[in-house]
C-alpha cells in the first residue's frame, strides 16, 4: 500500500492506541539544536520497508517530517522545517526514530508527536512518544539608569532595561541595604515581543528621595533558573562625582602655598650659584705659580 497523502493518513490513524506510549520533556535554547527522543525500547534491527514514521505537532496540526516505506530519505510537508528537522536512516534501522531540530525559535515551543506504524501488523501503531519542547533564551545584562544631578523632586526614578529573552521574565526591585523586595506598587514594568519573537522588558521604579538610596534590579528567567541582578547607587546630593577630601583648600590658601614654594626654590638657586662662584675663585688663587 502506497500512501500519497500523509495528512489524510494521520487523520485516519493518529487516534489509534499504541502498544508503547511515552511522554517526555526537553529544553532548547533559541538558535541552538535539540534532539526530540523517540526510541523503541527493544534494541533490535528494523526493516524500514515495514514502518511508517511520522513527526507532527497538534497546535497547529502540522506534519514536521515523515518516512514512508520505499523512500530513500525522510520527506517534509511544512517548509518551516525543510532545513531544520532531520531524521537519521541509520538510527531508524536500530529503532531510534528521534528527531533533530535545528535553529530553535520561540515558535517551536509546543508538543511534538512521534508516531510509528508497522505495515506487517496491519498498520498497527507500535510506538507513540509525545515530546514537549520548552524554549528559552538568555536575557541581556540589565542596564539601570540612575537619577543624575541635584533635583527638587521628592521622588527618585530608576529605569531598568533587558532584551532578547524567553520566556516572559519576572522583574524585581530590591533594597540593597537589607536585600528586601520593594513594593510592586512602586514599580511599573512593560514587556513586549520584538521582531525575533523574544521578550524585551523596561521597568521603572519610583521611590521617595533620601540620602544614599541604593537599589538593585533583578531579571528572572524561571525556565533557566537564572537571576540577572544589577545594583545602582544614587549620586551624592551635591551632584558631583569628584573625590571629596577631608579639608579642601580654598583658592587663597592655594596661591599662598605656591608663592612660598617659589620663594624657597629661588633662595636655593641663589645659594647654589654663590657657592659655585666662591669655589671656583678659591681654586684659581690657590693653584697660581708666579715667576721667581
Short description:
The chain contains three helices and 16 strands.
What is the helix fraction of residues, given as a range?
10-25%
Mean pLDDT across all residues, rounded? Answer: 79
Tally of contiguous helical segments = 3
Gap between N and C termini? 145 Å
Please state the CA-atom Rg, rounded to the nearest Å. 39 Å
Strand proportion, as a percent range, falls in: 35-45%
Low-confidence region ranges: 234-254, 285-292
**Silhouette:** elongated
Largest sheet: 5 strands, mixed
Overall number of strands: 16
Order of helices and strands: HEEEEEHEEEEEEEEEEEH
Broad structural category: alpha+beta
The largest beta-sheet arranges its strands as 1-8-7-3-4
Walk me through what this model shows:
The relative contact order is 0.12. The chain is 16% helix and 37% strand. The chain contains 3 helices and 16 strands. The chain is an alpha+beta fold and 292 residues long. The protein has helices spanning 6-13, 89-92, 251-286, and strands at residues 20-29, 34-36, 51-58, 61-67, 85-86, 99-101, 111-118, 124-136, 143-145, 155-165, 170-175, 180-181, 187-193, 199-208, 214-221, 226-233. The N and C termini lie far apart (145 Å).
Amino acid at each position: 500500500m502506497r500512501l500519497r497523502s500523509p495528512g489524510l493518513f494521520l487523520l485516519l490513524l493518529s487516534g489509534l492506541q499504541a502498544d508503547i506510549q511515552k511522554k517526555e520533556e526537553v529544553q532548547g535554547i533559541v538558535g541552538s539544536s535539540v534532539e526530540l527522543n523517540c526510541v523503541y525500547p527493544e534494541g533490535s534491527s528494523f526493516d524500514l520497508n515495514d514502518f511508517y514514521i511520522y513527526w507532527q505537532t497538534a497546535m497547529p496540526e502540522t506534519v514536521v517530517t515523515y518516512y514512508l516505506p520505499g523512500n530513500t530519505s525522510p520527506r517534509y510537508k511544512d517548509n518551516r522545517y525543510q532545513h531544520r528537522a532531520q531524521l537519521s536512516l541509520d538510527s531508524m534501522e536500530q529503532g531510534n526514530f528521534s528527531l533533530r531540530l535545528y535553529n530553535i525559535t520561540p515558535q517551536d515551543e509546543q508538543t511534538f508527536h512521534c508516531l510509528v506504524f508497522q505495515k506487517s501488523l496491519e498498520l498497527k501503531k507500535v510506538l507513540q512518544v509525545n515530546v514537549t519542547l520548552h524554549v528559552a533564551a538568555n536575557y541581556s545584562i540589565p542596564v539601570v539608569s540612575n537619577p543624575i544631578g541635584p533635583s527638587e523632586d521628592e521622588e527618585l526614578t530608576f529605569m531598568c532595561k533587558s532584551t532578547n529573552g524567553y520566556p516572559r521574565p519576572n522583574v524585581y526591585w530590591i533594597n540593597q541595604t537589607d536585600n528586601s523586595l520593594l513594593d510592586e506598587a512602586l514599580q511599573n514594568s512593560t514587556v513586549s515581543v520584538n521582531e525575533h519573537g523574544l521578550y524585551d522588558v523596561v521597568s521603572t521604579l519610583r521611590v521617595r528621595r533620601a540620602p544614599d538610596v541604593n537599589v538593585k534590579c533583578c531579571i528572572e528567567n524561571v525556565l533557566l533558573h537564572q537571576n540577572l541582578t544589577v545594583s545602582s547607587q544614587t549620586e551624592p546630593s551635591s551632584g558631583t562625582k569628584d573625590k571629596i577630601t577631608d579639608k579642601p583648600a580654598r583658592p587663597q590658601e592655594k596661591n599662598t602655598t605656591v608663592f612660598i614654594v617659589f620663594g624657597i626654590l629661588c633662595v636655593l638657586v641663589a645659594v647654589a650659584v654663590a657657592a659655585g662662584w666662591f669655589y671656583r675663585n678659591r681654586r684659581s688663587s690657590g693653584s697660581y705659580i708666579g715667576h721667581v
